[in-house]
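Researcher: I need the complex structure. Ligand is guanosine-5'-monophosphate. Inputs:
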Amino acid sequence: MQDDIAEILVTQEEIQAKVVELGRRISEDYRGKDLLLVGLLRGAIVFLSDLMRAIDIPVRLDFIGISSYGASTESGAVRLVMDLESDIAGRHVLIVEDIVDTGKTLAYLVENLRARRPASLRICALLDKPERRQVPIQIDYVGFVIPDKFVVGYGLDFAEGYRNLPFVGVLKEHLYKEVLMRGAILQRIQNYLNRQITLSELVAWARDTLAAGDLPLNEASLLQELIARVGEPGSPGFGLTVDDCADLLRRLGHEMRVSLGPLTY
Ligand code: 5GP
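Model: Output:
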């Protein structure tokens, strides 16, 4: 696992020292108050479990699950997948998050929780990537400001891996690229099936991507196969059958399901 890391951005020792400092500040700010820590699943759990032990006032704990649609490293639209157990009305709530990137996740969460009328609502994030921000977010307690790099470790994952690394590191590019490329192929096939792009556009994209070179082997062969299955325009077998699509999607780890419904106009 450590071999997959190109660079350690924040060491275990730096994290430990920062957690102690944040714990001290939070304890001082909330002394005498009833503090509820709300951890965002799943990335924040490592940070949260260390942070809560660095806080020396009584705290309660709850979790909330948020998921974003879209490619693996970009947050798209956000939705709630697991709600809090506690009623937060009148309570002092501190959201604990692993990283703030575009800000969309927290913007959604803050709006959602604010509507439940807590006495106060603040944010504590281990990492902040301000260069990527799309939605302004006030982070009250920040661990480290980091550059625009995709990081893993200390709770942060890539395709559900690397969460248990004790530091925050940058993944080697070739690992990263492979999963991103798979995501891109998947997306194009989906676009074609949803009639957002034509078959010719799909093939043109596959050819251009192959021509650009430097593709991971598996993904290159997937694209070659896609082109071969489609055939030449004008030739008798030109096209992509449902079976072809299902097979390509299966190789990308996805299953094709067909849903029927009444026509909508
Ligand atoms: P935002 O909504 O601010 O764009 O993104 C927040 C979420 O995106 C985080 O909770 C995290 O799950 C994911 N994320 C953003 N940047 C990174 C990153 O560099 N590494 C990892 N592993 N996840 C990230």
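Model: Summary of the prediction. Residues 43, 75, 97-105, 150-152, 156-158 surround guanosine-5'-monophosphate (CB under 6 Å).
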